[in-house]
Amino acid sequence: MNVILCGFTCTGKSTLGREVAKQLDISFIDTDDLLGDVRALYREIGDQAFREREREAIFSLRNVKNSLIATGGGSFVLEENCAFLKSIGRIIYNAF
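-> structure tokens emitted (96 positions)
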């Protein structure tokens, strides 16, 4: 089973995810890392195109198992992302 961390930008999803994955000895995936420099990419291509790239990165995780996945702050803007992530793991909301 995958564990998926979601929450607002800069709430510590990546930091928490890395540490918890290390403690549990499971793989850690940060969807922002799949996109590269997210701030520069967002500025370069704009919101709509960025959300599409983010969706593609999320859907690329379809075969991932037994991992902790940290999502970008806007990953849950698209309903299809929410539904897909629910289908591949348990979602935990990080409100810190």
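Helices lie at 13-24, 31-35, 38-59, 79-88.
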